[in-house]
Amino acid sequence: MDHLGGPRGGPPILTPELAQEIARDIGRITGFNVLITDPGAVVIGCGDLARVGTVHEASLEVVRTGRPATHSAEQAGRMRGVRPGMSLPITVGEEVIGTVCLTGVPEEVHRFGLVVRRQTEILLEEAALLRSRMLHERAVDDFVRDIALYDPEVVGPDAVAARAVELGLSPGAARSAVLLEVRSAGAPGRTDEGPAAVSRLTVLRTVREVFRDRQDVAGEQTAGRYAVLAVAHEGRAAPERLPERCEHLLALLAERHGLDGRMAVGEPGAGAAGMHASYRDAATALRTGPAVFPGERVFIASELRVPHLLGSIPPHDRARFTEAVLGRLREQPDWPTLRETLIGWAEGGLSLVRVAERLHIHRNTLLYRLEKIGKLSGRRVREPGQAIEMYLASLADILREGAR
Predict the structure, then answer these.
(1) For residue 66, what is the domain's CATH number?
(2) Would the pTM of this model clear 0.70, i.e. be above it?
């Protein structure tokens, strides 16, 4: 054990900062001057700051025996750094990690001694529990970042698997990466300026309420951005149910915390490499999805493969392709409508009936638009090959707008 009672090489149980906080709080409640020492009888917390760092000689015997002791004025006068009062051992498990001392007439402080000692130990237990939770949260955040930044040449898969086991996770289970971005909804009367106004733990509690499987892991990446590695099971945890769960989570975040959000879902992957691939797909979907599907809040990576592919092309090459295929179409005042028509035409299978229904327009309106597109572009938009070219160029144009 080190001098403050922590495991050798580990963090101390009773730090000077915690000791000072406990001494101040208990002193305020009882009205007595409270002093706390480490196992070497050095004062590490006291209402009288001048005594911090001095030796309280009476505490040496209290630590050695594990029994309380009172000190009259005469007894205190024979010891270094001691005033009349009472000293009690602070124990964690079976280990005495220090003492708590009350200054005053022994007969008066004795009534409070056992209560103060127990209160000190309770505060220590609560601090240790909080620290344990914080360390766990940090480990979870680190694991999620390990997956997000995974590089097998830097960190081997076995190391990542070992960290998963430390968190109680099955390292071989397939998981889908689910990314969440939140911001303030800006409702009337709200004074918060963003997601920082809602604590990360508050958001994570809501996230974990929805993704509550014991094999799910959720952590914070940056302010306002969270990642979940959702295990792939049958039933409610099946991958095809993830969009539904995302919508539910977004509704809870808006209702409880006044947060707007959007989410993206990657396909399941096993092991560090598989989860990393799922994460990358989800990150790309979160970036490109709003441009391709404006107004949507949940984006599925498997539905954005083509935009993803287009987005991987260098911007200059993508711009040349767009200009060559679309020509002066993009100069038309109604280009957004014509672009929507081209996308609907390809995704509707070049069927006049299906596409008209998809775009919620009359068949004759669709025919008029296709004819206009053909005249302005010089392309045969009703031929599959040229229709697909124009479809890809239209998606590339949307990505260009989204990148502005």
Answers:
(1) 3.30.450.40
(2) no
